[in-house]
Amino acid sequence: MTATVYYDKDADKTRLDGKRVGIMGYGSQGHAHALNLRDNGVDVVVGLQAASKSREKAEAEGLRVTSAAEVAKESDVIMVLVPDTVQGALYKEAIEPSIDSSKTLMFAHGFNIHYKEIVPPPDVDVSMIAPKAPGHRMREVFVGGSGVPSLVAIHQDPSGNALANALAYGWGVGSMRAGIVATTFKEETETDLFGEQTVLCGGVTSLVKNAFEILVEAGYQPEIAYFEVFHEMKLIVDLMYEGGLTYMRYSISDTAEWGDYMAGKKVIGPESRAAMKTILARIQDGSFAKEWVEEDARGRPNMKAARERESTQQLETVGARLREMMPCVDDKKPS
Questions:
Q1: Nearest-CA neighbor of 282 among 198, 220, 204, 225?
Q2: Contacts within 8 Å (CB) and 24+ apart, 134-139
């Protein structure tokens, strides 16, 4: 089955004419959406709390900033770009009192709609444009004249125009330049969480940590272990990003390619596949979402403990020291 992909020719940008788009939040995604829309001539207003540290940044860019409740009241399109765990409360307090059939409610991730943390009225269009890149990259590429791909999904379409309006929004943020792939809220949410947990974040970090620890326990220098299982990861991922697995294997040594074929399936074998299926099942049945919402409501004690524990492990301390020695690496730290 081939996915449906939309490009510039499929967008009716005039659907944004005379419309005000309210951006809830001004973080990684929020700033990129707001600025890209603004640069494409769209009337944009940003919703932030009075004490938000982002208020000054948004205003410095010439954007009008007001309360979330005021943004919901005056906007035709409301794009929710605050963290998942905040969206439910934001909707109840600021959006729900003003939402009606004249407005479109939009998201960049399906979590709260799919798991019913937010249940909009049935007469309201609910759609999603989910850029497949961090906000800073989305903005950088847009300024350079291109765009990042996005996903589009429709949850509710009482007007009959939800898709056309969502594609116009996708044009506004620059994604029609690269292509927008059709999906559903369910598919986007479940595959996004699965990818994060099994590969992009959970899988990669656990693979690297275990490999590092095995080498150190076997008597190898931590610095050498760091270079071999961590530092060079970017080189391999960049090759995969540029040309897929085939191009990566073409670019590495024959010895490395043979090791890939022989050892990879032993590291990620039947046991790992079974674990991935269990993780997917917990995402599909809502167990993970329930656990995460409850963890957040308790003040995130387990997450804070894990963050502290992980930040002080040997892999991190050795890596920080080595990155300071390498002028080619811009060593970044959480702000």
A1: 198
A2: 134/28, 135/27, 135/28, 135/29, 135/30, 135/31, 135/32, 135/33, 136/28, 136/32, 138/29, 138/32, 138/33, 138/36, 138/173, 138/174, 139/31, 139/32, 139/35, 139/36
Active site members? 109
- The reported pTM is 0.92
Residue by residue, pLDDT tens for the chain (335 residues) are 789 999 999 999 999 999 999 999 999 999 999 999 999 999 999 999 888 989 999 999 999 999 999 999 999 999 999 999 999 999 999 999 999 999 999 999 999 999 999 999 999 999 999 999 999 999 999 999 999 999 999 999 999 999 999 999 999 999 999 999 999 999 999 999 999 999 999 999 999 999 999 999 999 999 999 999 999 999 999 999 999 999 999 999 999 999 999 999 999 999 999 999 999 999 999 999 999 999 999 999 999 999 999 999 999 999 999 998 888 777 787 76
